[in-house]
Amino acid sequence: MASLWERLKFAVATDVDALVSKKEQKNPLAVLNRYIVEAEKQTEETGKWVERQAKLNSKFEKELAEASAMLDKRQSQLELAQNSGESDLSAFAEMEVAAYSNRVAELEQTIAENLAELTGLEQRYEEMKHKVKDMKVRQLQLMGKENATRAHHQMDKVLNPQLAAERLGSYDDMASYIKTLGSKVEEEHERSAMERRLEALEKNSAQQKEIG
């Protein structure tokens, strides 16, 4: 849960450039989409756990009601047995009263602890849902920014070619934002492959010198 929480906050609070810094992340919107899908899935699963915690609390309360009722009954029976001089029944009733008293006390403590846990879970669950909503808003913002940039560029090419040339840099930044990420991965892979070939060449050369 804690690691997911950090990832959710990271996805919302971090700049998009930071989000796409890893080699496998080639598109800022695709990255954010993946985070949203994962966050929605985890939030849905968390909601089920919160619901289960609430159901457990209802079961605890049912057990408490039953134990309390039996405690009242055994206390009444104990008093009756004592007044009737039934020593063996009094002993049994005393044992039952002690057992039900312990059960009631334990259930009351359990319910109090469970309610505290449930309150904390519900608060964090609501926060998770807000984080997912924040990411969806961020997603729309990115889509709007990219769409507006492309639209302006297309308009400027017709309405004002000179302005289009001046804005080309910003358009290229947006357009290459996705393209260059893929090429960076390929470059790193190529560089890694070249390094391996150089190491192999160096090793072969050393072996040939030893043979010679």
Jot down its keywords.
single chain, 212 residues, mainly alpha, 5 helices
Beginning-to-end CA distance, first to last residue: 62 Å
Q: Could you say which structural class the secondary elements and strand pairing correspond to? A: mainly alpha
Helix content: over 70%
Q: For the CA atoms, what is the radius of gyration?
A: 34 Å
Strand content: under 5%
Listing every helix as H and every strand as E from the N terminus to the C terminus, the arrangement reads HHHHH
Number of strands: 0
Distinct helical segment count: 5
Query: What is the mean predicted local confidence, pLDDT?
Result: 75
Give the overall form.
Answer: elongated
> Low-confidence parts, pLDDT < 50 over ≥5 residues?
12-17, 19-25
Specify the biggest β-sheet.
Answer: none
Put the structure in a nutshell.
It is built from 5 helices and no strands.
What does this structure look like?
This protein is mainly α. 93% of the residues lie in helices and 0% in strands. The radius of gyration is 34 Å and the shape is elongated. The protein starts with a helix and ends with a helix.
Question: How are the SSEs ordered, and which strands pair?
Answer:
Layout: H1 2-13, H2 16-19, H3 28-84, H4 87-159, H5 161-211
Helix pairs in contact: 1-3, 1-4, 3-4, 4-5
